[in-house]
Structure of Alanine--tRNA ligase:
Amino acid sequence: MMDAKTIRKTFLEFFKSKGHEIVPSAPLVVKNDPTLMFTNAGMNQFKDYFLGNKTAEAPRVADTQKCLRVSGKHNDLEEVGIDTYHHTMFEMLGNWSFGDYFKKDAIDWAWELLTEVYKLPKDRLYVTVFEGDAGDGLEMDQEAADFWKVHIDEDRIIPASKKDNFWEMGDQGPCGPCSEIHIDLRSDEERAKVSGKSLVNEDDPLVVEIWNLVFMQFNRKADGSLETLPAQHVDTGMGFERLAMAIQGKESNYDTDVFQPMIQDLAKKSGKTYGTDEKTDIAIRVISDHIRAITFAIADGQLPSNNKAGYVIRRILRRAVRYGYTFLGFEKAFMYELVDILSDQFDEIFPEVVNQKEFIKKVVRQEEENFLRTLDNGLKIIEKFMADNAATKEIKGAEAFSLSDTYGFPLDLTELIARENGYGVDIEGYNKAMQEQKERARAASASDKGDWITVNEDDVQFIGYDNLTSDAKILRYREVS
Ligand code: ATP
Ligand code: MG
Ligand code: MG
Ligand code: MG
């Protein structure tokens, strides 16, 4: 069986043999881009080439890109651990043409790599092509369909809608049709039962998109009209963990050697057997997913904090701690130990983890211990709130706010726990309570000139419950540098 390290290496070597320069992943954390906190696709770091702001140094490149999809346009957080193929942090393998090759080579090489190099069974692959959109004056991507026909029976080339198969950078700018490759992992019996049905985009968890080939063909002008780009580009992205699943013949990303070392470690330490109980399985999957996001964020310089990107990381961490506490019985810090496993796993490709291992562990452990201090009480309080609101099945805004303010429960964690119990949360009320608290704090500390000063609200960050002891509930702000 091909292991994950070999799968990644094989991808890069394959595209190198096709004249691509192998480039490093951009950092997971994006600095200086007001529109993006974290890298969420391989193409992010090449945006300026597509926009024509810069000229690419090499016309063909390939890489594996660390991605995080927990905010903004791509937010997969709610899926993670519930399904078996969406992660917070994942690697996106990609190859690019900057005004060089176009649809034919992209399609031929994708097919060659998957079926001849990785030896995926051809009769389990499906592809989608853009079906066109009359309203937008766009024709079906017949070109792509014709290139696919050389390789695949026509009944497995599936026309698909603009939603999934037409990519646009924004309201204006480069755009074009995509062609996705999906793999059908169902058993032969299952497949026989539904034969004849279109098998892609049907929400069957065992028919999974693995690779997206984007053909940047047009430029959308300010008036909405399209013109053909003078230089056309290819942008592809393939989920590395999904690819490993397909190649290793598994039905879940978590059954591959990307995740198994962590899963087995968590199972052993918690005394649970993975694969026997849905609730503990989800918890194990969530934790082994989340620790990757946390580890890579810290390795790339984003520490957990109460502000912006740092708060996203803190939320993910607290979410994982609580899954461990509630479903696996971890009452002490445990996640930091998983960093060792990640460090071994990524030593060749992402040395930033190996090099900073001890630091990452220290940060994670501290974060865990901080949250564990208030977690148990917070969970009791949320139980009480649910009991109090049994009639409405909705936790009140002020209650959710007090959970975050006093016990460090991020709103989405309160929502998650509420949802597990069939409850909702009054978000509007929460926002209102937070606003009131801010105003009170501002009034109270207006003349405070100590370490913690209140300045213009836009320039401050909430550092709240971090330094909290039970009798000192003071909201604190500090200047953002
Ligand atoms: P999906 O429809 O499964 O959510 P997507 O269409 O949003 O995927 P793309 O933006 O096309 O994904 O990204 C390219 C590839 O990255 C996908 O084909 C998939 O293999 C992989 N991928 C996307 N999101 C995730 C994720 N959250 N976790 C793991 N792999 C992912
Ligand atoms: Mg998606
Ligand atoms: Mg998709
Ligand atoms: Mg896609």
